[in-house]
TrEMBL record, chain A:
GO terms for molecular function: ATP binding. InterPro entries: AAA+_ATPase (IPR003593), ABC_transp_ATP-bind (IPR050319), ABC_transporter-like_ATP-bd (IPR003439), ABC_transporter-like_CS (IPR017871), P-loop_NTPase (IPR027417). Belongs to the ABC transporter superfamily. PROSITE patterns: ABC_TRANSPORTER_1, ABC_TRANSPORTER_2. CDD domains: ABC_NikE_OppD_transporters. Keywords: ATP-binding, Nucleotide-binding, Transport. This is Peptide/nickel transport system ATP-binding protein. It comes from the Bacteria. Residues 6-243 form the ABC transporter domain. PANTHER family: D,D-DIPEPTIDE TRANSPORT ATP-BINDING PROTEIN DDPF-RELATED (PTHR43776:SF7), TRANSPORT ATP-BINDING PROTEIN (PTHR43776).
TrEMBL record, chain C:
Transmembrane segments: none annotated. It is a peripheral membrane protein. It is found in: Cell inner membrane. It comes from the Bacteria. Residues 6-255 form the ABC transporter domain. GO terms for molecular function: ATP binding. This is Peptide/nickel transport system ATP-binding protein. Belongs to the ABC transporter superfamily. Keywords: ATP-binding, Cell membrane, Membrane, Nucleotide-binding, Transport. SUPFAM superfamilies: P-loop containing nucleoside triphosphate hydrolases.
TrEMBL record, chain D:
It comes from Kaistia geumhonensis. Gene3D superfamilies: MetI-like. InterPro entries: BPD_transp_1_N (IPR045621), MetI-like (IPR000515), MetI-like_sf (IPR035906). Pfam families: BPD_transp_1 (PF00528), BPD_transp_1_N (PF19300). The keyword Transmembrane applies. Residues 116-347 form the ABC transmembrane type-1 domain. The chain crosses the membrane at residues 20-47, 122-143, 155-178, 216-239, 274-293, 324-347. This is Peptide/nickel transport system permease protein. PANTHER family: D,D-DIPEPTIDE TRANSPORT SYSTEM PERMEASE PROTEIN DDPB-RELATED, DIPEPTIDE TRANSPORT SYSTEM PERMEASE PROTEIN DPPB-RELATED. It comes from the Bacteria. CDD domains: TM_PBP2 (cd06261). It is a multi-pass membrane protein. Keywords: Cell membrane, Membrane, Transmembrane, Transmembrane helix, Transport. It is found in: Cell membrane.
Automatic annotation (TrEMBL), chain E:
This is Peptide/nickel transport system permease protein. The keyword Calcium does not apply. PROSITE patterns: ABC_TM1. Residues 102-291 form the ABC transmembrane type-1 domain. CDD domains: TM_PBP2 (cd06261). It comes from Kaistia geumhonensis. It is a multi-pass membrane protein. InterPro entries: BP-dependent_transpt_permease, MetI-like, MetI-like_sf, OppC_N. The keyword NAD does not apply. The chain crosses the membrane at residues 40-61, 106-130, 151-177, 231-249, 270-290. Pfam families: BPD_transp_1, OppC_N. Keywords: Cell membrane, Membrane, Peptide transport, Protein transport, Transmembrane, Transmembrane helix, Transport. Gene3D superfamilies: MetI-like.
Length: 263, 506, 278, 355, 304
C-alpha cells in the first residue's frame, strides 16, 4: 500500500473571539495516500477552504493534528514543507501580483528556494501548462482568466511539489475554459505523479478529477464517499443527495425535505 | 471708524509680560507705564537736561552728596482715591528692590540692596523721603535713574490689599493697576489688546481722551489697511515703504521722533579674526551707512556712530566712518587677510534688521569678507549672544534711562571677562576686556560737574568708536502714521514718553 | 396579431474607451412574448449589456443603436429619459446579478422596497410598507416583519436575492430581466429562487428574460434560449431542442462540461473559430 | 494640506474596533487619549530642552543682572538634573497643572480658555463653509466628470491648494474690507462692542446669542466671515476633491444601477443613494479637515490679528514658554483624538455594516 | 516614421520577448495613458520646465541672484526691460532670484520625497502587515505625530536643528510622513490577505521579502500619487517656515522667503511678493495636475 501523504486528525479551526467567534472547522479527519486525489465538497461557508488553509498554515489550528508524510507539520512551516505542498487559488485575478510579469511570478519561488537553473525551469513550467514562451514577459492584465489560472498552476508546480491543494480552481472560469484547466490538471497529475486535494461545490468537477470525496457541512464531514458512488447515486446523506439532485438542472417541484423550504 | 473719545493704536504688543512697574522693561510696557504711572520726577521732552518734580515737589542733595531728600506734593490722589504720600513712594522703591526683578539694578547701582533698602529709602514724614546712596554719585545720574518706570509710584494701600505670601502684591499687580497717572489700565489681554482709560482722580490736566486702546496687529500690512480704513487712529509699526505710501494719503500724516535706540554690530573678540584691531576698523569702513539710512531705513533711522544717542549728555554726533572699500581692503591686508575671510552673523528675523544685514552682507563682500547670515528668532539669537557663541551679532540697544552712564556702562565697561561673570554688559558679550575704559566709566558717575562729566563721556565714545568691537551705525527714528484728525500725540525721546495724555481727535 | 412585449431589432451597444472602441453587443434581434427567454454565453459576450440597453441603463461612455427597440409597442429609442424612467421599475424591471453589491448597503430592506413602490404609486408610507410585507411573503421569506428592518449585509445570499426579486416585482411589472439571479447562490438555494420566478410568470403572465452562463440550467428552465458569442446571437433554439443545437459553439458548450452520468477523460474542449465572432 | 486619504485608511481598523462595543470603545478611547497625550508630553519636553532658546530670557529680559537671572533660573527648576525636571514636568502635566504662561502671566488653562474658543469659532465656520460649498461642488464635478464644470471645480480646488494663504488673506482684506466694505476688518470684534458680552464659552458669537446681544453677534460674525471663508476655501478645496473621488467610486457601484432600475429620478439616485454611501468616508474627511483647522492656522491668525491657539503656541515656542506650548499642544492633541473618536462613533451610526 | 511606428509596435506588443521590453512597454503604456490626459500633460510640462530651469539657472539668469545692485537707484523697480520681473528691496533682480530659487524648490520637493516617502512606507507597511501590537505601537506613534500641530512640530525641529533650508526641509519631511504611513497601512491591509501574498507565503517567502518585494511596490504608487498631490502643500510649508523666518538663509533666493520678505510691499510694490507667489502657484499647480494624472495611471485599482 502507498504511503499516507497527508493525515488530518480531528482538526479544529476557530476564528475571532467573543461575539465574533466562529468554529469554521470542527473535528475534521482525513487521509490522503500518495498519488491519490481527494475531493472536498459542501455548501458555501462549510469550511472547505479553511481546511486547506489550516494545512498550509494560513489559518490558525485550534486543535487536532496534521501530518505530512508521517511527520507532524511545524509552525512556521519549514522550507521542505513548501517544496512538498503547494496551492492553487480560486480567483485567478486575485492570485497573481498585478505588477509582476509572468516571468517574475515564476522566478519568485525559485529565488526563495535558491534553485539554480531558474531560467530553464521557468520555460519548462510554462510549457507544462501549455503556455508558449511568448507569455513569459506579459503582465497578468494581458492574460485571460484561463491563462492566468495556468500561470498560477505553473507557479505551484515549479518547485515540483508532491501535493497540490486546489481551492475551487475553475469556479471563476467559463465552462469551456474549465474543461481546459481540468484536462491540464489531469495530465499533470499523471505525468508528475501528484496528489490533489480539490475543493469545489460542483459535484461533477470533483467526480471528474477525484476518486474519493468528502462532503462537508457546517465545519463537519457529513459523508465520505467515492466518485463512483456519486455517479451511481448511492449516497447516504440527505444533504449530499440534495446537492446531487440540484446539480442535474432545474425542476419545477421542490425537493422533499429541503432545508431551505419556506414554511 | 473709531469713537471720537477713543484713540486706537495698531501696534505689536506681544512683548508685554507684566504690568507691574517693578518688573516692566519692554518697549510697549514702558510706554503704557509712562501713560499710567507717575514717577517722583520727570524731564522736559524737548530738553532732556531740564528735570522737574512730578510726585515730588522738590528735592535737596545733602552736602556729602549721598542723600537726596524729596518733598512730596500734597493733596494728590491715586486713581483709587487714596492720597499719595511719602509712604507710597517709600513702598514703591523698596518694593522694586525687594522684588528684585530685572529693572531692580537701576536702583541697585546706587549701592541700595535688599539688605539696606529699608534704611536707604525711607519716608521721614508724611511728605518727605530720604534716598541714600553709598557714594556721592552725580545727582543727575541718580535723578535720571529715578525717572525710569521702575521708580513709578504705586498705591501702597491698594497693592497691599492684594498681597499674598509676602509678595508685595506682585501676582496681582502683574495684571492690574495701582497708579496715579493720566490713564488707568483697564484691561490687558495678551496678544490681543491693552485698554487704558482716563483717570478721573488724576491730579494734573485731565486727558482729553476717555480711552486709549492698543490693538495687537502683528502684520504691518494689516496695520496699514486698518489705518487707511480708519479703524485705527495710529499705526505704529509701518515700514519705510509703507510710510512712504500712506504719506500720500491726505487723511494720514506721519509723525516721527528720534529715539535713543542704536543699531550696531557686535564683533565677538573670541573670534581670532575679529580680535585684530585692523579687522575691527576695516569692518567699520564696510557699511554703507548713508545708503542704508536713505533707503532700507528711510525715515526710520539716521546715521549715528557713537554709543551715546543724540540728546544725551556728552553725545558725540559726528560720524567719521563711511563706506570705503579701498581703505578697508588696505586694513585687511595689514591684518594679514588680503583676500578677506568668512564670518557669520546672527540676525533676528525681523525687519528692518534683516534688510540691514543683507545690505551689509553685500558691502562686506566687496572687500572679500564673506558674511553668512544665520537667521533666528529674537530670543534665539539673543540666547546665543549672551552665551558669547556668535561671531557677529546685529543688535539694537536702547538706554535704560536718560543718563549717559547707562550706555557707557554697557558699551565700555567689562569688569570681569570670564564666561560666568555676573555682569553681562555688551562689552562682556563681545569678550572685550576694558581695564582702562572701565575705570573711566566708574569715575564719570561720581563727577558732579555736568560739563566735566560730558567731556569724560566724549572721550570714552571716541575710544570705543576707534577701537571698540562695535560698529555702531544708526540711531532709531520712531514713526507713527496717524489719521489726520489726531492731534497732540506726543513722541518723546524715550519709549516711556510716547504719550497720549494730551491727544485729542477732531 | 397582438404586439409582442419586447421587440429588438439589430441592437448594438458600443463603448468608447481610451484605447479605442469596444463593441459589446452587435446586431442582436429577438422578440419576446409573455414567456421565458434565456440568454446564455460566456463572460463578456454581451448578455448583461443587452438587458441594460433595454432598460436604458447603458453606461455613459456607451452608445446604443438599433433598428427597433420597443416595449409593448412603445418605441424606446424615441422615448424621453422621463418616459423611460416612468417605465423603469413600474412596467419593466431587472433583477441585478449579485444582491451583495446590488442592494444599497446603508438603507434597510424596508426603505429600499418602499422607495421602489412609492416611486410609481401615490401611496402613503404605511400602505407601501404593507405592500412590501405582502411582497416579501409572496417570495416566501420567513418573518418578513423582521427582515424589513434588516440591512443588506444582515441578509444571507438567498434572502438577499429574494429581497431583490420582491423589490423589483412589487410594482407588478410586465417584463422582468433577471441577470444571473442565481450565480451567487448555492446549488441548493438556486432551485428555490428559480421556482419563485417561474411561479410569477405562470401566475401573472409576466415576460421573463433569464440571463445566465449555465446552458443546462437555462435549457431546463426557459421556453426559448439565445446563445451569444462576442456580442452576437449565434444561435436561437427552443429549450427542448438544446441537444440538437447546430452551432459548434453551442455544441461545444454543452459538450465540455464534466458530467456525472458520463465519465470522459479528457474532456472535449472548445476550439474557437475566429469566424464565429464575425 | 496635511489632510489625507488616511481618513479612508482608518476604515478597516475601525470596523474591527466597532465590534468591541461601546464600552470597549470608550475604554479604548481613553487609553488612546492617554497614550497620545503622554506622547505629546514627552515630545514637548524634549522640544523644550532642544530649542536653543533660553527660557529664562523670556522672563527676565535682556537687561537683568546676573543675580536676578540666576534666581529666576533656579525658580524655574532649570538647574535640576534633566530626569528630575522631566519627573516634575510629567507630574504637573498629569495632574492637569500646566502652570503659568510666562508670556501672558496667566495660568495656561485660562489662556487656552480664551484662545482656543477663538480658533474653534473660526475653524467651525470655516469647516461649515468648506462643507456646505465643497460637497455640492464635488457632487457636480463627479456627476459631470470630465466636463468643463469638472475642470473648473478642479482648478478652483487646486488654486486653493497652491496659493500662499497670507497672500490671499491680505488681498481679501484689501478687497472685501478696505475697498468694498462688505465685512469688518481684522480682530474678533469692533472696539465699540468690546466688553458687551461676558465670556462664557469664549466664542463671542455663541456668548452674544446666549446673552441676547444680537448687534454684537452680527458684528462678530462680520469679523469672522473673511478669515473663515479663507479657511473654508482651503477645506473646500480638499473636501470637494474627496467628495468627487468618493462619489465617483460610489456611482460605479451596482446598487446605483439598481436604484435607476427602480425608476428613481437621477437627483434621488445621486443624493439619496450614492452620496448617502459616500457620506460615510466623507465624514471622516470633514472631521479630519476640521481637526486640522483646530490646530490653528498661524498665518491666517497673523494676517487677521486673530488671537487663536495657533499663534499662541507658536509665539510661546519662540519664547521657550514651554508651559504654554505643552498646554496648547495637549489641548489640540486631545481635540484631535476626540474628534477622531467622534468620527468613529458617527461612522458607526452612518454605516450599518459597522454596527 | 517607419522606425517610430515599429518602435511603438515593439513597445505595445502583448507578447514582449524580454524583461526589458516588458518593462519599457509597461512604462510606455503608462505614459500613453498619461499623455491622453491633457491637464496631466500640462502638469508634466510644468515639472519638466522646473527641472530645466533649475539645471540651466546660470544660463537663464540675467543678474546675480544674491548680490544686490545700487540701493539708491535700483531698489524696488517695477518690471521693465532690464529687470523683467522688477527688483526687490535689496535691489536684486527678482527674475534671476526666481530662476535660482527653482533649484531650492526642486531640492525641497526631492528631499522631502526621498525622506518622507520611505519613512511613511516603512512604518505603514510594517504596521499593516504584521498587525497586532506592532501595529498598535506604530499607529500610536503616527497618531502622536498627526495630533501634533504640524507647523509647530516643524518649527520645533527647525529650532532644534538650527535654521537653514536643509533643516527646514528635514523638518518638513519629518512631519510629512504620518499621512503616508496611514495610507500605506490601509493599502497593506487590503493586500496582505490577498491570494497573491498568500501564494508567496506558501512558497516560503519571508516576511521581509513579502514586504519589500510585494507589498511595498504596490503601496508605492498610491503613496507616490499622494506625495505628488502634496507637493504644493510641502512647498507652501517651506514658504510658511520662511515666512516665520526659519527657512532659507538670506540672501538665498527661496521662493517662500521671497514672498515673506515681499509682503511688506504687497500693496504698492506688488511684484516683489507676487512674482515668487506666481512661481509657487504654477509649480504646485503643475504637481497637482501631474498627481491627478498619475493617479489614473498608477492607481492599482484603475489597472484592471
Ligand atoms: N479569517 C477569517 N476570520 C473569521 N472567519 C473566517 C475567516 N475565514 C473563514 N471564516 C469563516 O469560517 C467559515 C468557513 O469558511 P470557508 O472559507 O472555509 O468556507 P468554504 O467552505 O470555503 O466556503 P466557500 O465555498 O464560500 O468558499 C465561514 O463561516 C467563514 O465566515
Ligand atoms: N462601461 C463600459 N465600458 C466599456 N466596456 C464595457 C462597459 N460595460 C461593459 N463593457 C464591455 O462590454 C462587454 C459585454 O459585457 P457584459 O456585461 O454584457 O457581459 P456578460 O455577457 O454579462 O458577461 P458576464 O457573464 O461576465 O456578466 C464586455 O467585454 C465588457 O468589458
Ligand atoms: Mg472557499
Ligand atoms: Mg453580466
Ligand atoms: Ni497641511
Amino acid at each position: 500500500m502507498a504511503e499516507t501523504l497527508l493525515a488530518i486528525d480531528d482538526l479544529r479551526v476557530t476564528f475571532g473571539v467573543g461575539r465574533l467567534h466562529v468554529a469554521a472547522v470542527e473535528g475534521v479527519s482525513l487521509r490522503l495516500e500518495a498519488g491519490e486525489s481527494l475531493g472536498l465538497v459542501g455548501e458555501s461557508g462549510s469550511g472547505k477552504s479553511t481546511v486547506l488553509r489550516a494545512v498550509t498554515g494560513l489559518a490558525p489550528v485550534a486543535g487536532g493534528s496534521i501530518r505530512l508524510a508521517g511527520e507532524p507539520v511545524r509552525l512556521p512551516r519549514g522550507m521542505d514543507f513548501y517544496r512538498t505542498v503547494q496551492m492553487v487559488f480560486q480567483d485567478p485575478f486575485a492570485s497573481l501580483h498585478p505588477r509582476h510579469t509572468v516571468d517574475q511570478i515564476l522566478a519568485e519561488p525559485l529565488a526563495i528556494h535558491r534553485v539554480a537553473d531558474a531560467d530553464a525551469r521557468i520555460v519548462t513550467a510554462l510549457a507544462e501548462v501549455g503556455l508558449g514562451p511568448s507569455y513569459r514577459f506579459r503582465y497578468p492584465h494581458q492574460l485571460s482568466g484561463g491563462q492566468r489560472q495556468r500561470v498560477a498552476i505553473a507557479r505551484a508546480l515549479v518547485l515540483r511539489p508532491r501535493l497540490v491543494l486546489l481551492d475551487e480552481p475553475t469556479s471563476a472560469l467559463d465552462a469551456s475554459v474549465q474543461a481546459e484547466i481540468l484536462n491540464l490538471l489531469e495530465t499533470l497529475r499523471r505525468e508528475l505523479g501528484l496528489s490533489y486535494v480539490l475543493v469545489s461545490h460542483d459535484l461533477a468537477v470533483v467526480a471528474h478529477l477525484c476518486e474519493r470525496l468528502v462532503v462537508m457541512r457546517r465545519g463537519r464531514i457529513v459523508e465520505e464517499t467515492t466518485a463512483d458512488a456519486l455517479r451511481s447515486g448511492t449516497v447516504r446523506d440527505a444533504y449530499t443527495r440534495e446537492m446531487l439532485r440540484a446539480s442535474k438542472g432545474f425542476t419545477r417541484e421542490p425537493p422533499a425535505g429541503s432545508g431551505l423550504q419556506p414554511s | 471708524a473709531t469713537p471720537k473719545d477713543t484713540l486706537v493704536q495698531a501696534w505689536m504688543i506681544d512683548d508685554i509680560i507684566s504690568l507691574d512697574p517693578a518688573e516692566i522693561f519692554e518697549i510697549s510696557t514702558t510706554e503704557i507705564a509712562g501713560n499710567t504711572y507717575e514717577r517722583l520726577i520727570g524731564y522736559d521732552l524737548d530738553d532732556v537736561s531740564k528735570i522737574f518734580g512730578v510726585v515730588a515737589e522738590s528735592w535737596t542733595v545733602s552736602d556729602d552728596g549721598k542723600t537726596i531728600t524729596f518733598k512730596i506734593r500734597e493733596g494728590r490722589k491715586f486713581a483709587s482715591g487714596n492720597p499719595i504720600t511719602a509712604a507710597d513712594v517709600e513702598f514703591s522703591l523698596q518694593r522694586a528692590v525687594l522684588l528684585d526683578k530685572s529693572p531692580a539694578f537701576i536702583i541697585n547701582q546706587f549701592g541700595i540692596t535688599k539688605d539696606n533698602v529699608k534704611t536707604a529709602i525711607k519716608a521721614t514724614g508724611d511728605y518727605t523721603l530720604d534716598f541714600t546712596m553709598d557714594r556721592p554719585y552725580a545727582p543727575s545720574f541718580a535723578l535720571y535713574a529715578l525717572t525710569s518706570s521702575v521708580a513709578s509710584v504705586v498705591d501702597k494701600k491698594l497693592v497691599m490689599e492684594h498681597e499674598a505670601n509676602g509678595d508685595f502684591g506682585y501676582e496681582w499687580l502683574k495684571t492690574h493697576y495701582a497708579g496715579s497717572g493720566p490713564f488707568t489700565i483697564r484691561d490687558w489681554r495678551a496678544n490681543e489688546v491693552a485698554v487704558l482709560e482716563r483717570n478721573p482722580n488724576y491730579s494734573g490736566t485731565p486727558a482729553p481722551l476717555a480711552r486709549v486702546i492698543y490693538r495687537h496687529i502683528p502684520e504691518t500690512a494689516t496695520q496699514r489697511i486698518l489705518l487707511e480704513k480708519g479703524d485705527v487712529d495710529i499705526a505704529r509699526n509701518l515700514g519705510p515703504e509703507e510710510i512712504a505710501a500712506v504719506s500720500t494719503n491726505p487723511d494720514i500724516k506721519i509723525q516721527s521722533a528720534p529715539k535713543g535706540t542704536l543699531y550696531y554690530l557686535g564683533l565677538n573678540q573670541k573670534n581670532p579674526e575679529l580680535a585684530k584691531p585692523e579687522v575691527r576698523e576695516a569692518l567699520k569702513y564696510l557699511v554703507d551707512y548713508e545708503a542704508i539710512a536713505d533707503t532700507i531705513m528711510k525715515n526710520q533711522a539716521s546715521v549715528h556712530q557713537a554709543f551715546l544717542p543724540k540728546g544725551f549728555l556728552g553725545a558725540v554726533n559726528d560720524n567719521p566712518y563711511k563706506l570705503d572699500v579701498d581703505k578697508a581692503k588696505a586694513l585687511l591686508a595689514k591684518a594679514g587677510l588680503p583676500d578677506g575671510f568668512t564670518v557669520t552673523m546672527d540676525v533676528r528675523s525681523a525687519q528692518p534688521i534683516t534688510g540691514v544685514a543683507e545690505a551689509i552682507q553685500s558691502t562686506f563682500a566687496k572687500a572679500g569678507v564673506k558674511l553668512e547670515i544665520i537667521p533666528g528668532d529674537g530670543k534665539q539669537t539673543l540666547t546665543k549672544y549672551r552665551a558669547r557663541t556668535h561671531d557677529i551679532y546685529i543688535g539694537v540697544w536702547g538706554p535704560d534711562y536718560q543718563d549717559p552712564h547707562t550706555n557707557a556702562q554697557t558699551f565700555a565697561s567689562n569688569p570681569d571677562n570670564k564666561d560666568d561673570a555676573s555682569s553681562k554688559t555688551l562689552a562682556w558679550r563681545n569678550a572685550w576686556p576694558t581695564p582702562e575704559l572701565g575705570k573711566e566709566v566708574d569715575a564719570a558717575i561720581l563727577e558732579r560737574d555736568p560739563a566735566k562729566r560730558a567731556a569724560l563721556y566724549e572721550a570714552m565714545q571716541r575710544e570705543v568708536m576707534a577701537d571698540g568691537p562695535f560698529v555702531i551705525m544708526f540711531q532709531q527714528t520712531e514713526n507713527a502714521a496717524e489719521r489726520a484728525n489726531v492731534k497732540g500725540f506726543i513722541m518723546g525721546p524715550s519709549f516711556d514718553n510716547n504719550l497720549a495724555t494730551a491727544t485729542s481727535k477732531e | 396579431m397582438t404586439t409582442p412585449l419586447v421587440e429588438v431589432e439589430d441592437l448594438s451597444v458600443g463603448f468608447d474607451l481610451p484605447d479605442g472602441r469596444v463593441e459589446a453587443v452587435r446586431g442582436v434581434s429577438f422578440t419576446l412574448g409573455r414567456e421565458r427567454l434565456g440568454i446564455v454565453g460566456e463572460s463578456g459576450s454581451g448578455k448583461s449589456q443587452t438587458g441594460r440597453a433595454l432598460l436604458g441603463l447603458t453606461a455613459k461612455n456607451g452608445t446604443v443603436t438599433a433598428k427597433r427597440l420597443a416595449f409593448d409597442g412603445i418605441d424606446l429609442l424615441r422615448a424621453s429619459e422621463r418616459e423611460r424612467r416612468a417605465l423603469r421599475g413600474s412596467r419593466m424591471t431587472m433583477v441585478m446579478q449579485d444582491p451583495r453589491y446590488s442592494l444599497n448597503p446603508v438603507m434597510t430592506v424596508e426603505q429600499q422596497i418602499v422607495e421602489a413602490y412609492r416611486a410609481h404609486r401615490r401611496v402613503s408610507r404605511a400602505e407601501a410598507r404593507d405592500a412590501a410585507l405582502a411582497m416579501l411573503q409572496s417570495v416566501r421569506i420567513d418573518q418578513p416583519q423582521r427582515v424589513l428592518a434588516l440591512y443588506p449585509h444582515e441578509l444571507s445570499g438567498g434572502m438577499g436575492q429574494r429581497v431583490m426579486i420582491a423589490m423589483m416585482l412589487i410594482t407588478g411589472p410586465e417584463l422582468l430581466i433577471a441577470d444571473e439571479p442565481t450565480s451567487a447562490l448555492d446549488v441548493t438555494v438556486r432551485g428555490d429562487v428559480l421556482r419563485i420566478l417561474d411561479a410569477l410568470v405562470a401566475e401573472r403572465g409576466m415576460g421573463l428574460i433569464l440571463i445566465s452562463h449555465d446552458l443546462e440550467l437555462v435549457a431546463s428552465f426557459c421556453d426559448c434560449v439565445l446563445v451569444m458569442y462576442a456580442g452576437r446571437i449565434v444561435e436561437e433554439l427552443r429549450a427542448d431542442a438544446l441537444h440538437d443545437a447546430k452551432h459548434p459553439y453551442t455544441r461545444g458548450l454543452i459538450g465540455c462540461l464534466p458530467r456525472l452520468d458520463r465519465d470522459r477523460h479528457p474532456l472535449p474542449v472548445l476550439d474557437r473559430d475566429p469566424a464565429w465572432a464575425l | 494640506m496635511s489632510l489625507d486619504q488616511s481618513a479612508l485608511a482608518a476604515r478597516p481598523e475601525r470596523r474591527g474596533a466597532a465590534a468591541l462595543g461601546l464600552l470597549g470603545g470608550i475604554a479604548g478611547f481613553l487609553l488612546t487619549l492617554a497614550i497620545t497625550l503622554l506622547g505629546l508630553v514627552v515630545v514637548t519636553f524634549v522640544i523644550g530642552r532642544v530649542v536653543p532658546i533660553d527660557p529664562v530670557l523670556a522672563v527676565v529680559g535682556d537687561r537683568a543682572s546676573g543675580d536676578v537671572y540666576a534666581r529666576v533660573r533656579a525658580e524655574m527648576g532649570l538647574d535640576l538634573p534633566l530626569l528630575e525636571q522631566f519627573r516634575i514636568y510629567l507630574v504637573k502635566a498629569v495632574t492637569g497643572d500646566f502652570g503659568r504662561s510666562v508670556l501672558t502671566t496667566n495660568p495656561v488653562i485660562d489662556d487656552i480658555r480664551t484662545y482656543f474658543p477663538a480658533t474653534i469659532e473660526l475653524a467651525t465656520l470655516g469647516t461649515l463653509i468648506g462643507t456646505v460649498i465643497g460637497i455640492p461642488l464635488g457632487v457636480f464635478a463627479a456627476v459631470r466628470s470630465g466636463s468643463f464644470l469638472d475642470q473648473v471645480v478642479r482648478i478652483v480646488g487646486l488654486v486653493g491648494y497652491s496659493v500662499p494663504i497670507f497672500w490671499l488673506g491680505l488681498m481679501a482684506l484689501l478687497l472685501f474690507y478696505a475697498r468694498l466694505d462688505w465685512v469688518a476688518g481684522p480682530g474678533r470684534l469692533d472696539i465699540a462692542y468690546d466688553y458687551m458680552v461676558t465670556p462664557v464659552t469664549g466664542m463671542i458669537t455663541v456668548d452674544a446669542l446666549m446673552q441676547g446681544q444680537t448687534e454684537v453677534f452680527w458684528n462678530a460674525v462680520s469679523h469672522l466671515v473673511l478669515p473663515a471663508c479663507l479657511l473654508g476655501y482651503f477645506s473646500l478645496a480638499y473636501i470637494s476633491r474627496m467628495t468627487r473621488a468618493l462619489l465617483l467610486n460610489e456611482l460605479g457601484q451596482e446598487y446605483v444601477i439598481t436604484a435607476r432600475v427602480k425608476g428613481l429620478s437621477e437627483t434621488r439616485v445621486i443624493w439619496r443613494h450614492a452620496l448617502r454611501n459616500a457620506a460615510v468616508p466623507l465624514l471622516t474627511v470633514v472631521v479630519l479637515s476640521y481637526a486640522t483647522l483646530l490646530e490653528g492656522s498661524v498665518l491666517t491668525e497673523t494676517v487677521f490679528a486673530w488671537p487663536g491657539i495657533g499663534s499662541y503656541i507658536t509665539n510661546s515656542l519662540q519664547n521657550a514658554d514651554m508651559n504654554a506650548v505643552l498646554g496648547g499642544t495637549l489641548v489640540v492633541g486631545a481635540a484631535f483624538v476626540t474628534l477622531n473618536l467622534l468620527s468613529d462613533l458617527l461612522y458607526r451610526l452612518l454605516d450599518p455594516r459597522t454596527r | 516614421m517607419a522606425a517610430a511606428s515599429s518602435l511603438r509596435l515593439w513597445l505595445t506588443t502583448s507578447e514582449p520577448r524580454s524583461r526589458a521590453q516588458a518593462r519599457l512597454g509597461g512604462l510606455y503604456q503608462g505614459f500613453r495613458r498619461l499623455a491622453r490626459n491633457p491637464t496631466a500633460m500640462v502638469g508634466l510640462a510644468v515639472v519638466v520646465l522646473l527641472v530645466v530651469v533649475a539645471a540651466f539657472a546660470p544660463l537663464l539668469a540675467t543678474h546675480s541672484p544674491t548680490a544686490g545692485g545700487d540701493l539708491r537707484t535700483e531698489r524696488l523697480l517695477p518690471p521693465g526691460p532690464v529687470f523683467w520681473l522688477g527688483t526687490d528691496d535689496q535691489a536684486r533682480d527678482i527674475n534671476s532670484r526666481i530662476i535660482y530659487g527653482s533649484r531650492l524648490t526642486l531640492a525641497v520637493v526631492v528631499l522631502v520625497t526621498v525622506i518622507a516617502t520611505p519613512i511613511g512606507l516603512a512604518i505603514g507597511t510594517i504596521s499593516g502587515y504584521f498587525g497586532g501590537w506592532i501595529d498598535r505601537i506604530l499607529m500610536r506613534i503616527t497618531d502622536i505625530f498627526l495630533a501634533f500641530p504640524r507647523l509647530v512640530l516643524a518649527l520645533a525641529f527647525v529650532a532644534a536643528l538650527g535654521p537653514g533650508i536643509e533643516n527646514a526641509i528635514i523638518a518638513i519631511a519629518i512631519t510629512a510622513w504620518p499621512p503616508y504611513a496611514r495610507l500605506a497601512r490601509a493599502e497593506t491591509l487590503t493586500i496582505r490577505n490577498s491570494d497573491f501574498i498568500h501564494a508567496v507565503r506558501l512558497q516560503g517567502g519571508s516576511s521581509a521579502r513579502i514586504l519589500l518585494k510585494h507589498v511595498v511596490p504596490l503601496c508605492l504608487s498610491s503613496v507616490t500619487v499622494r506625495v505628488t498631490l502634496d507637493m504644493a502643500g510641502i512647498i507652501l510649508t517651506a514658504a510658511g517656515l520662511g515666512f516665520l523666518g526659519l527657512g532659507a538663509q538670506p540672501p538665498t533666493p527661496e521662493w517662500g522667503t521671497m514672498i515673506a520678505q515681499g509682503r511688506r510691499f504687497l500693496i504698492d510694490q506688488w511684484w516683489v511678493a507676487a512674482m515668487p507667489g506666481i512661481a509657487i502657484f504654477v509649480v504646485s499647480l503643475g504637481f497637482n495636475l501631474l498627481g491627478d494624472g498619475l493617479r489614473d495611471v498608477l492607481d492599482p485599482r484603475s489597472v484592471r
